[in-house]
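Hi both,

Apologies for the delay on this - the queue was longer than expected. I finally got the zinc ion-bound model through. Below you'll find the protein sequence and the ligand SMILES exactly as submitted, and right after that the structure tokens for the full complex including the ligand.
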Amino acid sequence: MKTEYRTDITVRELCEGFHYDENEGKGLYGWNGRLTIQPEYQRNYIYADGKRDVAVIESLQKGFPIGLIYFLRTGTDKYEILDGQQRITSIGRFWERMFSVEGADGMPHYYEESLHAKIASTCLPICICEGEGDSPEQEIKDWFTAINTKGEPLNEQELRNATYFGPFVTAARRVFSNSSNTNVQIWKAFIAGSEKRQEILETALKWVSRDNIDDYMGRHRGDEGCKELVTYFESVIGWVKRMFLGQKAEMRNVDWGRLYETYHNEPYNTTELWEKVERLYADERVDSMDYKGVFEYLLGGEKDKRLLHVRIFRNPVKRKVYNTQTAKAKAQGVSNCPDCAAEGGTRGNIVYTFDQMEADHVTAWSNGGDTSEANCQMLCKYHNRAKGNR
Ligand SMILES: [Zn+2]
């Protein structure tokens, strides 16, 4: 199938020679006879309810997008509508003054050149498809029926692919959305989701764009290929494979693009790294819910306790420890932060509020200390941070 993306066809041009058959309830032709609005396989016009037809016109008036429209090329400068029949018919009927919409003055208005110039000059985004092979038209119609009968709503990336339709999307889909690409199966060890629902492509775009997919697709829309996207993606995956010598299911939920950006220039002993992965997976203090944090935790030098959620004391535990500790300190006339009390001087007798303190492992987690009440002490923020993320 060949596709061509057009954004230069105006509503005015499409409405030239618009013909609507009142008896049959069909929009028949537009674009000066070049466009068949309702081919046989399309359903009848159903937007004439004073709501959906009006919504199309109001969207155009406000400059809101009404979505991509698909044409099928059936001959030299001859087309049929594949998708968008209801929208085009609504626009044509408004153009022919068959219904009115409410104006800024709150009054109903039929189409008028002076009032609706913006609509007339709007360029609709149109994808022109052309079948290939033995029965090209059938190829397109089958494809169209298949995507439209599943009844599943489009996900975000599928919508983006439609919005930024062009040679870049075509090239990118050929790589990332293609089940017969053997690499896709390999990549799926590191990425969750389905290539058919565009989720591998979405991840690749997320990584290369640092989470600005729309911006990236907008800028590259007209590119003939997607070399940068593929090269970057392969760098990330290649790095992950070099760093981690084994495979775990949770690796599919790791944001590798971000970790690559942060750590790909750091040296690691990869044999040791994988041993540590296995050790954390076997450590009963690590909840299996937190396994995906293991990889970032290790790459970051085992510093960030928050990545292994199990290392955070829960609030009721912190409260209990705070209350016991504060009551004892008050009785002794010293600070409720043991480190402040030990330091003495001006800090020696400050009593901190609960919110001014943080929980600390008495025996560091890395030394086998667990996240239990017995191993919890409250420190003032200054001293907790001074201790570092042990
Ligand atoms: Zn302190």
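Main takeaway for now: The pocket of zinc ion is lined by residues 337, 339-340, 379-380, 382-383 (CB under 6 Å).

I'll put the files on the shared drive as well.

H.
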